[in-house]
Design a protein that fits this description.
heterodimer; A: alpha/beta; Alpha-Beta Plaits; Elongation Factor Tu (Ef-tu), domain 3; Rossmann fold; 3 domains; six-stranded antiparallel sheet; five-stranded parallel sheet; globular; B: mainly alpha; Ribonucleotide Reductase, subunit A; three-stranded antiparallel sheet; 7 strands
Chain lengths: ~400, ~475
Amino acid sequence: MNAPLKQHLIDPEICIRCYTCEMTCPLEAIEHDDNNVVVDALKCNFCMDCIPVCPTGSIDEWRVVNTPYSVDEQFEWEELPEQAEIETDSATDTGIEALDDDMAALLAEAHKGAGGKSTAPATASKPTINMYNLGKPAIATVQGNYRLTANDSDSDVRHVILDLGGLPFPVLEGQSVGIIPPGTDEAGKPYLPRLYSVSSPRDGERPNFNNLSLTVKREDHGVCSNYVCDLKQGDKVQLTGPFGATFLLPSDANAHLLMICTGTGSAPFRGFTMRRQRETPNAKDSMTLIFGARRPEELPYFGPLNKVPERFLKKVFAFSRQDGEAKQYVQDKLRQERDQIARLLQDPNGHIYICGLKEMEQGVEEAFSDIARGVGLTWIEIRDAMRQDGRYHVETY
Amino acid sequence: MTDLLNVSYDTQIPNNVGLSSDKKVLKALERWHPGYINWWNDLIPKNFQDSLIYLRTAVSVDPKGWTKFDYVKMPEYRWGVLLAPQVEDRRIPCGENAGELAWQEVPGEYRSLLRRLIVIQGDTEPGSVEQQRFLGLTSPSLYDMRNLFQVNVEEGRHLWAMVYLLFKYFGRDGREEADDLLRRSSGSEEAPRMLGAFNEETPDWLSFFMFTYFTDRDGKMQLEALAQSGFDPLSRTCRFMLTEEAHHMFVGETGVGRTIQATVDAMNKAGITDPYDIDKIRSLGVIDLPTIQKKLNLHYTLSLDLFGNEVSTNAANAFNSGIKGRYMEMRIKDDHKLNNDKYPVRTVKDGAIVSEEVPALTAINMRLRDDYVRDAAGGVGRWNKLIAKSGVDFQLKIPHEGFHRQIGVFSSVAVDPDGNILSSEDWLEKSKDWLPTKADGDFIQSLMKPCFEVGKYASWIAPPKVGIDNKPGDFEYVKLHMA
């Protein structure tokens, strides 16, 4: 049996048959008859050139299918078919996070900790995905590469700024990009891209500069992390993406965000915080960050974070190796803040985001269970309801 | 090296044609610029000029990132000169020079023909903005107002595109023509716009939607034909303009569609099944379908006139010289020369409408008009689907090509919408059933009350199915300046 695939379709009820997409498609994968304009699944390579030229928004439609709808079938449509229920492994769902299977599988794995199918917040901006892929990567220029951890620390975490120059690269906070390390693996094949969360907001590391930043930790023997951490200003980097369509920020000033992270898991939350600072700088008491690291010297963005006013962003740090202090983990801090968190669990505007190492999941889940139980609720039920509502998000690796 | 995909903002005029190193043309454009801004500022009511409009601005000619949406005040819109990227080794697609390298400079022998085509195209762009200048005052929603102004600023940009060609390639003559484009004015007694349809009023929003659907579609077909030009800069200009033109088609098709939707919804709600129960339907604050048919008849026929004479030696020359191609020339599979080919043209002979074969070269206008009719019929079919879905028994029809024509073979006879030739007395008696009367216009006018509340729509038009730039239904598309 063929693996299910994502098929690009055009909504015949919204399309006005201007054929601009057809003229734009470099592969002539789009054609029309007197009735409809359709995409030939056998030719489309997801290059996305047709998406921004469409005046109607009818072109950004996707279905997961076992057998693609043929061109002739599509010509007959008066409306788009519903997404069929499809038995698949966890790598596919209808909130399509990436169009190439490798990237989709990576994200599915990262989002597994949410306990079910992830959903984007209802008010999130619509993400662009897969504009660039292995065959057609974007080339970015390194603008800067700064060490975030203390020099005497054995943990080397980097803030890397990439400039896209004139290339369009619309990325939302919480989305990821792929970096293709140069060279080949043992089998002589080019490396696949590694995924990194973007740590800057959508309008750039600096507003209206077409750049983005990443937060990358050097891993022993990590092919890509060593490559990225060693990048010098002016170096060229091959990017794919953007990827990810669920771990996104709600566009809702009333949403209260609880963000839990360790280490470089802070990357998306830096983007979330900066976006909110630019969009609603006067918001109060609507973001809480619970951030774990071994020591303050190893906590990325410790300095800049402390400059964000407490009433804009409540910050709770958990240090597990601080001299003279008891070991503290994020779950300990959650328990400490149990009253606030119990309220958030019951608040329809409450959103929870967890990002960091896989190991943190268990402790965090247990803390949530305890807190829920304390107010007579069942965590799994709350979690599943919040997740289906697009208010519970996990990205761990 | 000049970056040919991305727009340079190093001069006052955004461009991807390396203006900063083309001092002569830059100077000419900068001299023309204040006159353009004055024309714009005098045109559209001041409170709209001061409002923040959620507009798209072209920032690149790369399809991936060609546009950016943001709040802009219209006078601060970055009108620029944008050409689609040059295709390497592009060849002249048609006519006696077919297969030769496309011209990067104007060939001397075609100079006046080319200039005339560019001026005619250029003249329509400001003309339509002039026709629509007061519509903002009666906008049925902020969404529609935004769409109107988007159309307007892009027509303005299309004027820039043509003016650039005039300055760059036509010297002193070109500069004079560019000035005249700002001197002529829609509906003016002394200096009207060059084509009839652009001197007609656009008195109400249904007219605007019909205009963008039918008349801008003529513009689209002309741009398609010019995009095939062997004169490469013209081809590249028109190809990029077509990307923007698609939005105008969208405004027209969805505007009429939403008007129809509001009508059939109101009829169903009130339990009215007879679409000809006009007074009762109008009392619901919506436009009855027979009146929509009359508006369609009017705008469709005015637009057919824009294609000129069915048989034309000018058109033959333009094609034969490779200045103007056919619709989708590159995808047509023939010799692209048409020396021995025939094309059927309808004409009037001995009081009857007959089809006759003429040399295909002379029937270039006719062919483009036939392509237009097919293209225009598509949307009418989709409007009919809306009506059918609602259960109302009514079908909109595209009238016969001979109906209500002022130009071409049918201008000498009176023809009814089904294609029957009538006596002038019969025409006088019956035409009020086919074309909007003063009373119809007055009724439509009576509905033109502004609706400026965020997320709200006037009674006679349904909300759109999808927002612009994926925005939600209650998005504030225009932040009105009310001072």
